[in-house]
Design goal:
The complex is a heterotrimer of chains A (246), B (247) and C (215). Chain A is mainly α and 246 residues long. Chain A has one domain (19-182, 196-242). Chain A is built from eight helices and no strands. Chain B has helices at 13-18, 25-42, 44-64, 69-90, 94-102, 104-109, 115-144, 152-177, 184-211, 216-245. Chain B has 247 residues and is mainly alpha-helical. Classes of the chains: A mainly alpha (246), B mainly alpha (247), C alpha/beta (215).
Chain lengths: 246, 247, 215
């Protein structure tokens, strides 16, 4: 464990190891996303209530899962950065934030599109959608705070603290929004709220979720690698690396 | 500067006898409370502005929506809470800004006393001169919005409890943005999403009082949120101030 | 009385630029150490590290031989830091400003001591004037009154001569020497040329290069 943490201190080591990991996740993402979407869109049975429109679940749910997981990973990376001063963790956190915001937006957008056939309107103050909207604001806050500092070290620390404060608040927000929703609209139909889903429906969903996660890991590795080169551009190993690639 | 004699220090028994037992945290806390209260009382407009803002925003709603008392009565709990929340947010930016600009913040960070505790004193002053007055004023504005009888006490209580959490959470944002020249708008972006649970249970308490559901459960949750904020926020504020001072 | 502040292999990187590297410092009781260097060479940053405000450095700091993270409380109780900004509230009178600092230092409320401190910096008659109405030099003197008000062995002073008139500069310089003679210790940055005494030592920070330590 300690050896691993100490290795993480070296951007060079991470750069080398991620070069080997990255293709694995790209391939996994491509295969899983392909299989999942073909199965989900073409072969899974239509919903008896919603017909074919339910199939947007194969984008909506994985995006929503990922949006929440990315925030948690961002906070964990922030903690690692603050405690062990590991710069890689901060670079990864910085690269994750826009991706998380994008995933949150995708889940909101797909939720809105889904709302049209289901509720007959683009937007309902549904508990899940509301929580997602707040999550989007939390992401935007972290991104904006990081951008507001002139000193990068301060920016990294401030963003880490905010991500940690945010992650403590997310369950509280989620719980209170759920409570607020049941108080105001006790009997409304929630789009993903049903427990029983036949195997043929949720198996492709599971594959899509895994595909989204692989895509996220692959993309974060890629972006972190280029961030390493950018931040370490004055270090000798990077200059040597660029030199030999030319 | 006379400098003719030295008053130094460790073996100098005068300094030893002047020392407060137990490190003097209580003394430092009390002095910080008194200092911040004095400062704000000398610039009363800073205390009055959020209150005027609160009244003004409440005036806008009947004009913008409808003067119909029945309609206003149904939305009054939410309006009062949202307006009070924004008013409390308004004064947040100045919480550490003055101390940052004149260098007192550095000195606060270098005392041998516990920084989270000292920060609590500053937040307490903010609540005393912002949250508490807003809570006391809200019933008057409630009358203007035809808030149903029986919910006035709960309105004031929920605001008094809730704004304490708002001050604590908001102070984290204020501490994170104090080193930035234009932190004001960013501060709202950081802090407002975190305010939502307090808003839900605060407005919910008033709503419940109107419906006769018993607002105690809501007040209890507001109390729980406050306890959580009291436990965690001081550390986050202290850490954020240490980051900002090096900005 | 003995006190010592040591830095071993101190290095500070701000935003991927090394302000200084491999800096060894050994500061003993009875010394005035002047940190020198061009603008942007990291003088203020070094003072902030040595006064425990910045944790963001590599290397080790020792206070009286004990690693800084274990000695932090004792260190802060021995430290008086005056930064670029005087830390004086314009809306409060000099006397009220000092009341807060006295309490922050963990000392009992003592008006006689505050008046004596203000007298020592030549602010008699200004005790109850809001500090905002005082000149920049007078405000700086309010801050300097803390040197008398809360006696501490280690003084870390960032540009303490700013805005002070000539008589005040001479008196403050004398005060630093008296403090060092009495076994105290002063760390100072200033553009003002300090008189050479046997107490004075200079530490030069080059721009990004190796620091030159010595006389």
């Amino acid at each position: 464990m300690w050896a691993f943490i100490n290795k993480l201190r070296s951007p060079k080591w991470f750069y080398a190891i991620s070069a080997r990991l990255q293709p694995v996740f790209w391939v996994a993402a491509a295969v899983l996303l392909l299989v999942g979407s073909v199965w989900g869109l073409a072969f899974a049975p239509a919903d008896y209530q919603q017909g074919n429109s339910f199939r947007i679940i194969y984008v909506h749910v994985p995006a929503a899962f990922l949006a929440q997981s990315i925030f948690v990973s961002m906070a964990v990376a922030g903690l690692v950065y603050m405690v062990w001063k590991i710069k890689i963790a901060d670079m990864a956190a910085a690269m994750m934030a826009p991706l998380g915001a994008a995933m949150t937006f995708v889940s909101l957008f797909s939720g809105a599109v889904w709302g049209v056939p289901t509720w007959g309107t683009w937007w309902m103050w549904d508990a899940r959608l509301t929580s997602m909207l707040i999550l989007l604001f939390l992401y935007l806050g972290v991104i904006a705070l990081r951008g507001a500092f002139t000193s990068r070290d301060s920016a990294s620390r401030a963003a880490s603290v905010l991500a940690m404060v945010g992650v403590i608040n997310i369950p509280i927000i989620k719980y209170s929004v759920d409570w607020w929703y049941t108080l105001h609209q006790p009997a409304t139909f929630t789009i993903t709220g049903r427990a029983a889903m036949p195997m043929e429906m949720w198996a492709p969903l599971l594959i899509m979720v895994l595909g989204f996660y692989s895509f996220f890991i692959a993309l974060t590795l890629m972006r972190t690698r280029s961030e390493i080169l950018r931040r370490e551009s004055n270090k000798r190993w990077v200059r040597e690396l660029i030199g030999e690639e030319r | 500067m006379s400098g003719s004699e030295s008053h130094l220090s460790v073996n100098d028994d005068r300094s030893v006898s002047r020392r407060e037992p137990g490190g003097g945290l209580a003394v430092a806390l009390w002095a910080t409370l008194r200092r911040d209260l004095t400062l704000l009382m000398r610039r009363r407009s800073e205390v009055l502005n959020p209150l005027v803002f609160f009244a003004l925003v409440i005036t806008l709603f009947p004009i913008g929506i409808s003067p119909d008392p029945q309609l206003l009565a149904t939305i009054a709990p939410g309006l009062l809470w949202v307006a009070a929340l924004l008013a409390a947010l308004l004064s947040l930016d100045s919480l550490f800004r003055g101390d940052y600009d004149d260098g007192s913040l550095e000195q606060l960070l270098l005392t041998p006393q516990s920084l989270p505790m000292l920060v609590m004193a500053k937040v307490a002053v903010h609540w005393l001169l912002t949250g508490l007055p807003l809570a006391l004023m809200a019933p008057v504005l409630g009358i203007m919005l035809s808030l149903p009888a029986g919910s006035y006490l709960i309105l004031a209580l929920s605001l008094a409890l809730g704004t304490a959490s708002l001050s604590l959470i908001g102070a984290i944002g204020a501490a994170l943005t104090v080193g930035l020249s234009r932190g004001g708008v960013l501060l709202s972006l950081l802090v407002l999403p975190l305010y939502i649970p307090v808003l839900i249970f605060g407005a919910g308490a008033v709503q419940a009082a109107i419906l006769g559901d018993g607002a105690m459960a809501h007040l209890a949750i507001l109390g729980a949120l406050l306890a959580l904020a009291l436990m965690l926020a001081p550390w986050a504020i202290a850490a954020s101030l240490r980051i900002s001072i090096n900005g | 009385m003995s006190l010592s502040l040591q830095a071993r292999k101190l290095a500070c990187e701000r935003d991927d630029r090394w302000l200084f590297e491999d800096l060894d410092l050994d500061i003993q009781a009875g010394e005035i150490v002047r940190i020198e260097g061009p603008n942007g060479s990291g003088k203020t940053t070094l003072l902030k590290i040595l006064s425990g405000q910045l944790a963001d450095y590599q290397g080790e700091l020792f206070w009286n031989g004990i690693p800084m993270r274990d000695a932090r409380q004792a260190f802060l109780e021995s430290l008086l830091y005056l930064g670029h900004a005087p830390g004086v509230k314009g809306a409060l009178t000099p006397l009220e400003n000092l009341t807060w600092y006295q309490a922050l230092a963990g000392e009992r409320d003592n008006e006689a001591a505050r008046l004596a401190a203000l007298e020592s910096v030549g602010l008699v008659g200004f005790e109850d004037v809001p500090a905002g109405q005082l000149s920049a030099g007078q405000q700086r003197r309010v801050a300097l009154a803390r040197l008398e008000l809360t006696p501490r062995p280690l003084w870390v002073l960032d540009e303490p001569f700013t805005a002070i008139d000539r008589d005040g500069v001479a008196a403050l310089e004398e005060r630093l020497i008296v403090h060092a003679r009495a076994g105290g210790c002063v760390l100072v940055t200033t553009h003002h040329e300090l008189r050479n005494t046997d107490k004075l030592r200079r530490v030069h920070l080059g721009r990004g290069g190796q620091p030159h330590v010595g006389f």
